[in-house]
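Q: For a teaching session next week I want to show students how multiple molecules come together into a single three-dimensional assembly. I've collected the sequence lines for a complex. Could you give me the predicted structure tokens for the whole thing so I can convert them for display?
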Amino acid sequence: MTGFRAEIAIENIGRRGDGVAALEGGIVHVPATAPGDRVSVALTETGPGRFRGRLLDLLQAGPDRREAPCRHFAECGGCALQHLTPDAYGAWKLDMLRGLLARNGLDAAVVEPLHRSPPGSRRRAGFTIRRRRDDAIVGFNERHSHRVVDLAACPVVLPEIAALIAPLRAWAETALQAGDRADAHVAVTDSGLDLLVRTGARLGGAGRDALVDLLAREDLARVARAHPKREGAEVLAEARPVRAVHGGVPVALAPGAFAQATADGEAVLTGFVLDAVQGAASAFDLFCGSGAFALPLAKRGCSVFAADIDKAAVANLSAAARQAGLPKLHAEARNLMRRPVPAGELAGAEIVVFDPPRAGAKAQAAEIAASRVPVVVAVSCDPGTFMRDARILVEGGYRLTRLRPVDQFLWSAHLELAARFDFAG
Ligand SMILES: C[S@@+](CC[C@H](N)C(=O)[O-])C[C@H]1O[C@@H](n2cnc3c(N)ncnc32)[C@H](O)[C@@H]1O
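A: Of course. Below is the structure for the complete assembly, covering every listed component.
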């Protein structure tokens, strides 16, 4: 049926944020549509009975629809849900979460109100840069495509990140050759803007100098360059040391270091962890990054064993703990997917916090489940893998007692979660 057009009524919104409608016994996903919309679409078959619809005309708007605040919406793949009213948008995220909990036999009654990071608060972004024959473009990929949408603005990121789009484009026009590609990782840290450009293109002296010029002109804290196929990054210029501050403790950040997507989101997650810890004397912080949870825990006098695969983050965390006089914080570089901390080692602690990447932490969750540690906090940026890991804990005798959804991925279909599990025997 590829190439056909159809008129359909959108019934609900699917897991990826696309409107969903039934069609001749099959199902159609249409980006940028809302329940109650009547739309005309061009269909592409994506599997047996499954279609993707490209919106041609909005024939009648559903009750949850509003004008999207960004001019790039619908084309840019960065956002999926700007066209919903704030109430409908929040309700969709919570319904999606409750549906997943129900399907996994987990208690949806423990879901707390959705924390919402506001527009213009995202503190890191990864832009794709393409040098074309006559100009350069800087932006995010289109939905389901490698085509880059050239951005004039982005209402999701902090204004200082959005303000760097035009200078990055100007840099690419002078420094790159037609056909060259690069990625720019931009983060707002406690020291200011940190820019990491990753490219396999030959930059030459002028290209590097032009990057260094950006530092002074745009008041960046640091500029670094990396190669997509090589580990590590080369710092080209640094105006001031780049740091995050966790629990009042400054910690150095390597170029491209992980940070929670928004500062207010991180504050809610850290508050959740500290609330669970109360007066605990010993804790594990697994997938610790630069210590967003480990450092505040150690500041409270808790003995903390922290681990992460990122060697630079672990070294910086250890140095920060030393300088702050926190001898009870020990950090180890460790691949927790291949070599999870075993149940026997976890068993002595009062609390385990784990905050894995999107893939979740299946092997580590199994060890935690077997450890019988009284309290476990799971922080997750992927509700799907969270459910799998939560089931492992529940099968091991834990009960889900709190679940805080944190919307730090505004207008996307993603959702951050902080969950508390208590060992019930
Ligand atoms: C969502 S971040 C959490 C970081 C930290 N908790 C924070 O809030 O800043 C996930 C972390 O998992 C780490 N990670 C990814 N794969 C890993 C692995 N196989 N073993 C251990 N850590 C891993 C990353 O380096 C990253 O720091």
